[in-house]
Amino acid sequence: MKNITILGSTGSIGVSTLEIISAHPDRFRIVAMTAGKNLDLFARQIKQFAPRIAVVASAQDVPRLKELCSGLDVTILGGVEGLIAAATADETEMVVAAIVGAAGLIPTAAAIRARKDIALANKEILVTAGHLFMNLVAEFGVRLFPVDSEHSAIFQSIEGHRCEDIHKIILTASGGPFLHTPAEQLPAVTVRDALNHPNWNMGKKISIDSATMMNKGLEVIEARWLFNTPVDKIQVNIHPQSIIHSMVEYIDGCVIAQLGTPDMKAPIAYALAYPERITTGVKQLDLTSFSGLTFFNPDHDKFRCLQLAYRAIRSGESMPAVMNAANEIAVAEFLDGRIGFTQIAETIERTMNAHSAHNLQSIEEVLKADLWGRETAREICREMVH
Ligand code: NAD
Ligand code: MG
Closest Cα partner for 246 from 220, 268, 209? Predict the structure, then answer.
């Protein structure tokens, strides 16, 4: 029996994780769960999974959650202290990091320091603080299992091989909802168009990131840290069918890829049960039902965010954290209807132009760079609106 904490149980990844766990009650037990705002769903999850600890991100929501959970035997906490308590609970063996954004940094770092293995969905953690996290993982001797489908594919394609034998990592990208939209139409696309991803059903922030292709940029940085591979060896291929989830090309010319029906339950289950494989309910792949699998290079001029991410990781130090912060603000402003779609990239680029990268020695320093990026991006968005 593996004891699990889920950070972000009410999100898209959180809900899929709970589906896997409820299908395997003999294998997994929930010790603690955390959520942001969706208290009604959270209360239903608490009733079903009976965690010892349940945490809401805002301490102000604790009374309401207590009311919704009256009569249940659960300790309800709130705020960052609560998130840390959930991440470090004594019985917990593995923490599923499924919060969105840099908000996941503190509880996930606490989990590693408490020697919990990590199933990592929250890619912004490695984008903002990759070197610090990989050092923490090594120092505390924990295992870090990727949940992101591309990184799970790479992880599966690398098993039994040596990182030094890698020639190239090829991250596949669906291209998102605007793959075939002419660049000149992008300024006028709506929030609803941007949320309408062709192959994956995900949280709002990552759906917008997929539409701008910043998601792939974040994944390039995530791969750089997870697989200790120079960014110049990480390449992006558009693959609209999302069947090959990524590939690794070795120095001998052989390429190993991982394929499957696009469903996050597969990579989640692999991270939870590693090294075993368990049933997921994911539809088995029938390759004969596809008329063809296609691959081509991304249009870097149309999807500027992908280029900005390469620029940020090449510049290194605090630049990826600032880029990520600007992206989080710009995406929120777009979702709230205050800026247009192409102004997301513009906000990020202007924020990066205003930043001089500097070394980051601690999570606190990462959070300072994050705050600077947020404030600068907010200011830039305000100027653009006026
Ligand atoms: P989501 O928005 O659906 O869920 C996010 C979860 O985090 C929710 O439980 C929410 O309540 C919680 N949360 C949000 N802000 C918080 C805060 N400030 N403090 C504490 N909790 C907070 O997001 P998602 O789509 O499930 O994505 C989660 C992470 O996984 C993201 O980093 C995303 O990039 C990554 N990811 C998601 C998918 C996917 O298919 N959804 C695939 C690969 C990677
Ligand atoms: Mg992905």
Answer: 220
Tens-digit pLDDT profile for residues 121-162: 999 999 999 999 999 999 999 999 999 999 999 999 999 999
* Tokens representing residue 172 in the block: 């596949």
45-91 confidence digits (pLDDT tens): 999 999 999 999 999 999 999 999 999 999 999 999 999 999 999 99
Q: What is the distance, to the nearest Å, from the Cα of residue 39 to the centroid of all Cα atoms in its chain?
A: 22
Please check the confidence at residue 255 and state whether its pLDDT lies above 90. yes
Ligand 1, atom 40, lies closest to the CA of 202
Burial status of residue 362 (CB atoms within 10 A of its CB: 0-12, 13-18, 19 or more): exposed
DSSP H stretches of helix in 276-362: 304-315, 319-335, 342-353
- Quote the pLDDT of residue 372: 98
What is residue 207's predicted lDDT score, i.e. its pLDDT?
96
For domain 2-146, give its CATH number from 3.40.50.620, 3.30.70.100, 3.30.9.10, 3.40.50.720: 3.40.50.720
Which atom belonging to ligand 1 lies closest to the Cα atom of 8? Answer: 9
Give distance in angstroms: CA of 170 to centre of ligand 2. 13
Residue spans per domain, the chain: 2-146
Mutate to test the pocket of ligand 1, among 202, 226, 305 (most ligand atoms within 8 A of CB): 202
Rounded to 10 degrees, what is the CA torsion of 205, 382, 373, 124? 0
The pLDDT score that the predictor gives to residue 33 is 98
Q: How far is the CA of 165 from the centre of ligand 1 (A)?
A: 34
Mutational test site, ligand 1, from 33, 205, 206, max ligand atoms within 8 Å of CB: 206
Q: What is the DSSP string of 212-273?
A: HTHHHHHHHHHHHHHTT--GGGEEEEE-TT--EEEEEEETTS-EEEEE--S-THHHHHHHHH
Give the binding-site residues of ligand 1, using a 6 Å CB cut-off.
8-14, 35-37, 57, 98-100, 103, 121-124, 148, 200, 202-203, 205-206, 264
Would you call 357 exposed, middle or buried from its count of C-beta atoms within 10 A (0-12, 13-18, 19+)?
middle
Nearest atom within ligand 1 for CA of residue 125:
32
| Best residue for ligand 1 mutational test, from 44, 49, 80, 99 (most atoms within 8 Å of Cβ) | 99
